[in-house]
Amino acid sequence: THLEGFPFRKVLPLVAITLGVSLLFYTIIVKLGPILMLTAGVTPALIGAAGAAANMGHVGGAIIFGRFKSASGPTLLTAGLTLAALGYFGLSISESLYVSVASAVCASLGVGIMLPTLLAWTMGILPPAFRGRGTGIWTGTFFLGQFIAPIVAVALEGAFDGLANVLAIYGALALIGAVIAFVIARGQAG
């Protein structure tokens, strides 16, 4: 078959992490209006400006990745997940529009580090013959996150009594991921 020899055991954990990071990425994008409304009445123009600021966080994260791409995948994931956790916790407790925007930028900065890290890590694992297929699997998983992010967020809002609690849960999951990535990075360094 065409997939004989494909290193699924090495790639699938990275693809699963990518789905989680994709949820962190798209939840802010698709829920930014309601997130900002947790603190104040907002206008479409204000939501657009906040979204532009958050997108600059993604760009900043990609630039940081470019500067530190020689660091290990777990090290970069530790940094990205820590920033995402701080951003999501900030969004969950913010009572100020400015704090909410800064928190969205912080989370986006973390995601901006993680997405190129995960793609480069995945491509580094794959033999050249499987890179096209691997890129397709990775990209498909990332865009699956775009599709399910609003569905998951709405379902969790109902189950956990509101958007602020969902944001806190995402922050906690990102923090747990950061701790795991840190332990793995330390193990590799030792």
Characterize this entry briefly.
The protein has six helices and no strands.
Describe the protein:
- The chain is built from six helices and no strands.
- With 190 residues, the chain is mostly helical.
- α5 crosses α6 (163-189).
Give the tags.
190 residues; mainly alpha; 85% helix
How many H/I helices?
6
Residue-averaged pLDDT: 94
Roughly what fraction of the amino acids lie in strands?
under 5%
| Span between termini | 39 Å
What are the low-pLDDT stretches, counting only 5+ consecutive residues below 50?
none
Main sheet properties: none
Please estimate the helix content.
Answer: over 70%
Number of strands: 0
Overall shape: it is globular
Order of helices and strands, N to C?
HHHHHH
Radius of gyration: 17 Å
Give the topology, please.
Layout (H helix, E strand, L loop, with lengths): L7 H30 L6 H25 L4 H21 L3 H29 L5 H29 L3 H27 L1
Helix pairs in contact: 1-2, 1-4, 1-5, 2-4, 3-4, 3-6, 5-6
